[in-house]
Amino acid sequence: VNNRELDVVVFGATGITGRQVAAYLAERAGESSIRWAPAARDIGKLRRLLDDAGVDAPEPIRADLNEPSSLSAMALRARVVLNLVGPYMLYGRPVIDACVSSGTHYADLTGEMPFVRSIIEEFDRPAREAGVKVVQVCGFESLPPDLSVLLAGETANERWGQGLASVDVEVAVKPPPGLPRASDAVSGGTLQSLVAVAGAEDADQIADPAVLIGDLAVAAAARRVSAITLAPRSGRGGAVIAPMSPAAFINPAVIHRTEELAAVAAGRPAVPFRYREGVVLGGRPASLPLRWGVAGVLSATQAGLRWIARSGPSVRQPFARTLARIVPASGFGPSGDRLQGWTWSLSAQARTVEEQQIEVRVDADGHPGYLATARMLGEAGMLLAEDRATPERAGCLTPAIALGTSSRERFKRAGLRFSVQA
Ligand SMILES: NC(=O)c1ccc[n+]([C@@H]2O[C@H](COP(=O)([O-])OP(=O)(O)OC[C@H]3O[C@@H](n4cnc5c(N)ncnc54)[C@H](OP(=O)(O)O)[C@@H]3O)[C@@H](O)[C@H]2O)c1
């Protein structure tokens, strides 16, 4: 792949998130030697949208899911394809297939775990043989917690020679001042993806924290020590902790897979630790009842999603069809001017098997789901395109395993500042 004409292609650059990834790469191209191009099925629309957003983009590539040859042609031109065409369980497979067959690294933002599992089953071996990295769930979900937890584990091992027993991840998000709009939180693309997962044949897998673990004994251990809990709980300093939003079932599965892959690489047995996460709802004491109320609604939404996913197809499929008509469609979502001014932080508090403590923090800016995510994916794409910038390892990998913990320095450029306190 050394002779590819481009480093990174952004496929789906007309979407809410795709446009932001394109904007990030255009900005990075001004300060580095990266060669990139946006790609979409409708070149006219793409040019118009990027012009409106003031993105200085190179000549675009036309690629359409309905024309497999256009996907291979796109993949063959680049070292890395960043795929923003979702819902991934409907549209992702042909793009991954084209990348693995072309020897092109691949990264996306899926949070659809049964789909990730099916991709591992089908493509892990061919990707390893082809020396290709397939990196899914590479945005706000799950890159920051995944890198933080791996970093905590590596640091604990270096300092004390101990493995982790538990990790608590808490995320706090501060929106910009002013009245929030419904479209500020999630995009139509994300909502349609949640609906697609809930209606899928293998939907019962979504709430399984071990859905991505290959070894049956390790999977059973992960389920035993680290079941996903959805009830709101009290946190430090009077905070209320709600389940992770928009979905509580994504990060745990990725983090347990990272532990399994890290163990295999180190030649040691994988020992799943207890992983718990949530969103911090902080505020004045007077707002406590309101915060418990909000946390209750978020918990009930996640519990409802899990209930639907676990119910039989006769309940699930009509429900998903109806929901797909009700929730906003592609194109709905936070506009470019609503993505700035957000700040957020993540704290991963880890305990080792002998009660040593370590905390990894991430302080970040930009709307977590659509701006910070886009920058993370853009930077991940640049890293994957560079020789020796990431660990020598191929296959279907988690973000932390694919990029390695030393990549955290590079994510400063994307607005994420990692720090370790032990
Ligand atoms: N994990 C995370 O942290 C995270 C964060 C943000 C988003 N996401 C995920 O990322 C995905 C995209 O989200 P979004 O909100 O940006 O979606 P969106 O605005 O709906 O964009 C979807 C993109 O897919 C393209 N597309 C659809 N059908 C196509 C086809 N047949 N051929 C080529 N392109 C096609 C669309 O092109 P047209 O413009 O031509 O229709 C558009 O570029 C979703 O699955 C979402 O769940 C994840």
Description:
This protein has 422 residues and is an alpha/beta fold. It has helices at residues 16-29, 43-52, 68-77, 88-102, 113-130, 143-160, 188-199, 216-225, 251-266, 288-310, 313-326, 368-385, 399-403, and strands at residues 6-11, 36-40, 61-62, 78-83, 105-108, 133-135, 164-174, 233-234, 240-242, 274-281, 343-352, 357-365, 395-397, 416-421. Strands 3-2-1-4-5-6-13 form a seven-stranded parallel β-sheet, sandwiched between helices. Strands 8-9-10-7-11-12-14 form a seven-stranded mixed β-sheet. A hairpin with a 5-residue loop joins strand 8 and strand 9. Helix 1 (16-29) crosses helix 12 and helix 7 runs antiparallel to helix 11 (313-326). The protein is globular and about 55 Å long. It starts with 5 loop residues before the first strand and ends with a strand. The model has no long low-confidence stretch (mean pLDDT 92). NADP nicotinamide-adenine-dinucleotide phosphate binds at residues 12, 14-18, 40-42, 45, 64-66, 84-88, 91, 109, 111, 139-141, 187-190, 193, 330-331, 333, 369-370, 373.
